[in-house]
Specification:
Bound molecules: 5'-O-[(R)-(carboxyoxy)(hydroxy)phosphoryl]adenosine, zinc ion
Largest sheet: 5 strands, mixed
Shape: globular
Order of helices and strands: EEEHHEHEHEEEHHHHEHEHH
Low-confidence stretches: none
CATH superfamily of the largest domain: ATPase, nucleotide binding domain
CATH topology of the largest domain: Nucleotidyltransferase, domain 5
Number of helices: 11
Strand order of the largest sheet: 3-2-1-4-5
Oligomer: single chain
Helix content: 40-55%
Mean pLDDT: 96
Structural class: alpha/beta
Strand content: 15-25%
CATH architecture of the largest domain: 2-Layer Sandwich
Radius of gyration: 20 Å
């Protein structure tokens, strides 16, 4: 071991994640129990159902993580836990669990901001993955998830300057909503991405909200336009307005999915590249569930390459919620002396730099 071994707990939303991460980088175990199947019938997360599922799965997930890493809870140097932002009931399960572990084994408890976790996923290395350079400062971080969307400048560890954020919906929320309108089920992001791959016609243009020179973004107008465009396509196909009553032809769904995705990708990529150039960044880091999107990854990677900007792009499984990213951020916080007492409380809304 070259650095501290952190046991990390993530339960802010609908994934129960527990990981063991060494030195803020090397993953020894990263176990995620997903609740996607549980929430699919309701087309979205029911908070109490999510909290109860965390309660059900947190112990088996810990057991599997410890077994995979070949350690016991006594061997770890600290316990890190997401304390916000997120769903209160879900956060409380993970916080209480992490407190118990820290207390029982006499380990420091490190409070981690979920958004910072998405950023620090960029530092992670899989077991056996060859060592690579750490992300270069200064960098511009684009975090795009189901609950948050922002661009921040990072000149050093744990230091952020917010450049812009969504003024209404998060990018993932827009994907999920439009996925539902297209009859693609929950969650919409991966389904739209997959449907768009099959698009042959790419003529339908969805509106972009540029919001002038700012780095803010907005997706509510796009969502409204999508509802109108999809409604028109349904009328043209002789289908009732309600998306549950008859499906659009697959080729039309593909075309609409592509058009919507292209509008989101265009705005996010354009603003991210402009922010990187304006701040003199050496690299661009992406995180959050929507950073798993193939079209967004390809577009930003391509534009970064022609400008000589380094790309920090976790594999898709580390973009969506997981425990390892909390261990990576937790190690930085541990090194900075940040500790929580056993009175740590959940913070459902928490800005990035807290
Ligand atoms: O980061 P995350 O797992 O949870 C939050 O912190 O919110 O992000 C979940 C969001 C969902 O809205 C989901 O639809 C979206 O990320 N997402 C995607 C893709 N994979 C997940 N959106 C677009 N393309 C994808 N491939
Ligand atoms: Zn997240």
């Amino acid at each position: 071991m070259s650095g501290p071994l952190v046991l990390s707990v993530e339960t802010s939303c609908d994934e129960t994640g527990i990981a063991l991460v060494e030195d803020g980088r090397r993953i020894h175990a990263d176990v995620v129990a997903s609740q996607v199947a549980l929430h699919a019938p309701t087309g979205g997360i029911v908070p109490e159902v999510a909290a109860r599922a965390h309660l059900r799965w947190v112990v088996p997930v810990l057991d599997e993580a410890l077994e995979t890493a070949g350690v016991t809870a006594r061997d770890v140097d600290a316990v890190a836990v997401t304390y916000g932002p997120g769903l209160a009931g879900s956060l409380l399960v993970g916080i209480n669990f992490a407190k118990s572990l820290a207390w029982a084994h006499g380990k420091p408890l490190v409070p981690v901001n979920h958004l910072e976790g998405h950023v620090y996923a960029g530092w992670l290395l899989d077991p056996g993955e060859v060592e690579r350079e750490t992300p270069p400062f200064p960098l511009v971080a684009l975090v795009v998830s189901g609950g948050h969307t922002f661009l921040a400048e990072m000149r050093d560890h744990l230091s952020y300057r917010l450049l812009g954020q969504t003024i209404d919906d998060a990018a993932g929320e827009a994907f999920d909503k439009v996925g539902r309108l297209l009859g693609l089920g929950y969650p919409g992001g991966p389904a739209i991405s997959q449907a768009a791959e099959a698009a042959t016609a790419r003529d339908r243009v969805f509106p972009r909200a540029w919001l002038g020179d700012s780095y803010d973004v907005s997706f509510s107008g796009l969502k409204t336009a999508a509802r109108r465009i999809i409604g028109q396509a349904r009328a043209d196909a002789g289908l009732p307005a309600d998306e549950r009553e008859g499906a659009l032809p697959e080729s039309v769904v593909a075309e609409l999915a592509w058009g919507f995705q292209d509008a989101v990708v265009d705005v996010l990529a354009t603003k991210t590249i402009r922010a990187a150039e304006a701040t003199g960044a050496r690299g661009i880091l992406m995180g959050g569930g929507v950073a798993a999107n193939r079209a967004l990854r390809d577009r930003i990677t391509g534009e970064a390459a022609v400008r000589g900007l380094a790309m920090v792009l976790p594999r898709p499984g580390l973009c969506t919620d997981n425990g390892a990213m909390i261990g990576a951020a937790g190690a930085q916080r541990l090194a900075a002396g940040m500790r929580a007492g056993l009175d740590l409380d959940a913070r459902p809304s928490l800005p990035l730099a807290r």
